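During the practical work, I selected for study one protein's amino acid sequence and its backbone structure tokens, as given directly below:
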Amino acid sequence: MTKKFETHSFHIPVMGLAYTVDSPIKVAQYGISSVISIVDDFLIEKMNEYYSNKFKLPYQEITTKVEDYRAKRITSYLNTVDTIVKQKFENLKKTFEEKGGEFDKYMEMLPDFSELKQNFTKKFSNYNLKEDALHWIHNNLKPGNIDVNIMTKLDKANFVKNEQLPTEFNDAHAALRGFANSNLESSVILSAGMNPRLYSYFENFEDFFPTKEGYLKKKITLKVSDYRSALIQGKFLAKKGLWVSEYRIESGLNCGGHAFASDGYLLGPILEEFKQHKEALISDVHEILVAGLEANGKNIPESPLELLITVQGGVGTNEEHEYLINNYNIDSVGWGTPFLLVPEATTVDAQTIETLKKAKEKDLYLSNVSPLGVPFNSLNGSSNDIIRNARIAENKPGSSCPKKFLALSLDEKGMPLCLASKKFISKKVDEVKLENLSSEEYAKQYELITDKTCLCEGLANAAFLNYDINKKGEDQGVAICPGPNMAYYSKELTLKEMIQHIYGKINVVDTDDRPHMFIKEFKMYIDYFANKVDEVKDSYNAKQEKYLNTFKNNMNDGIEYYQQLFSTFGENKDYLLNDLNRLKQEFLNIKIPVREKI
């Protein structure tokens, strides 16, 4: 490892609604950063009650009758998490003299290249003066970040007695306010694209603006899939005096959760572009930031603020981890899917863990189940799928839709409506019945409509099951959204084992057939492209033609990049080039339709 790291070189990204909702409580005391989803305030309120009772902290229920309850629930829970993490971290530091205690666990899990670990070993390996050691620990040890995630698209308007509330009470706005009003000193990670109205709302909170010394109490991280998007969003925020502290690059397809496919841009070339243009990005956006801060009468930092470039999506071996860091100068690598098999780090119910352990490549697929209309990583055999299919078989498809976080459509009265709700599905099925379709076409349309599932409940239920928390309403089972990487992990892991795997001390991947992450993503994009070509064969227009040709050209650029890159890979060169050439031929065999010119 050539790049220097004070502590860890990985982070745990947000997963689902429940899977990382309490990860900081589990891992932050060991210097590991993780991300809480703050979409589901109902789940958050229950978790606040559970952990307040567990750690004997004051708890006051925030009911839906309280004004601005969503934001207040989020603030309260984040403050609870912050309090618990600080308490656990202080207790950890006091175990310095206990052999095998929490302090030893903290230091043991740090990678050997950690500057913190090296400095401690160098300073205290030959003498054990307790007072000096405790002083050093107090000044140098730090917990991992308690970051939060907001999906910018989930900004549904809210109503009281059919009267729409002001914009600041929209879901994403209220979530942002909940984070902004909390005690945390961490980042909000914005995903799922640009929301100008939400971005402008940041200006209302002083914690997002820098001090003259360049300190930001609360930071902004953008999850992006390409450099152009990062530049556009970074400049938009800078004009308002807001700095993006981190661009978190995620593979468009080789990831968990919703898959926001790029237009054929592959991860390697994207990382190369960030590497080549990082300094220009800093200087260009800093110049706009200074003007924005001046216009708003804010402090102007004496020098450009820190900018981190991180990456996640499909990484599964120490070799891939280190290559991303060393070749692309990455500041942290996200390891998501494998951590679903680590109960010490994430919250997954026992039944789902067993299903994950048995999952093979064929069991992990992109589905049509999300009400957002975006491909969604799914697990064959999940309890959510079983329950949904049983309802369809009983001719009772759809959910009662109690939470409505994904209710982004509108009914005839202008009220939020979810595509997975019984109301929407019943209405659409009735409409299709009137179209006099063939039995084959009707079956196809019926499947597309009824395939949608309740993710609001499904992605939260693991926490209710794990902590034996009662909840009302119909059972939706557990929906889980691992990336395809899960196929190569088949056993439950301890936190120590997972970290040892990340840092190359052990190997927990149980197959020799796992493809390189770049090759796996390339194959997924080939399949995605083939499906897109197939979709337009019966109705092909100029817009579709332009899209497919742009996609193809970007893929060809990616192939050329990987041919040059893999030629430098030493002993793995032939293996990777053979895989690349095989997939290249598969890609070239996909023929874009020729559109007749009128």
Observations:
- The chain has a mean pLDDT of 95.
- The longest strand covers residues 244-250.
